[in-house]
Amino acid sequence: MKTDVYDEEAETTHANRQGGEKSGSSKPEFNKEEMMKKVQAAGRPGAEHQALEAFAGEWKAEVKCWMDPNGPPSVSQATSKASMILGGRFLEEEFHGEMMGKPFTGRCLMGFDNTKKQFKSVWIDEINTAIFTSEGKGDAGNKVITLEGRADCAGSGQKDIAMKQVFRVLSPDKHILEMFHDGSKSMEITYTRK
Prior knowledge:
The chain is an alpha+beta fold. It has one domain (47-193): Beta Barrel (Lipocalin). The chain has helices at residues 5-17, 32-42, 47-52; strands at 57-65, 74-85, 90-99, 102-113, 118-125, 132-139, 144-151, 161-171, 174-181, 184-193. It has a ten-stranded antiparallel barrel with strand order 1-2-3-4-5-6-7-8-9-10. Residues 1-23 have low confidence and may be disordered.
């Protein structure tokens, strides 16, 4: 005979531990083999990851920056080295250029999330402590990848600015990255294979 509510809860807990089910329980049952198959499928590089290989290699780059969207851009030269890592799952880039007249290094990690069906990117550099993340989709057989994110600007004090990056593969030896800041084009980098 149950003496109080505590005994009923204890019985329910014991039944669940033993694999039994008390009414009202909604815990899903897991099949370990099925779970592993799904995890392996989600982790397998596919066509989108192969598309990222177009950006791998050693590059010279021409960088155009617009401080004023209606004015002429400043132009500088840069270099980039990018490679596929972790079994072809991610593209890792190290970029060496110039920012505000000083040497500048940045790193980008880009991949395709099979579960979310989106390209994702992370950018860090030696000027900022912020980590810029963006995500989006591929078009034209993944020859055009458009990523969007939001960022704050320490210089202007603006917060939560809409940012967009558009990667365009023009040929095996040339691609362009266009960056848009609050709807206006702020940067264009033309990469040419060394």
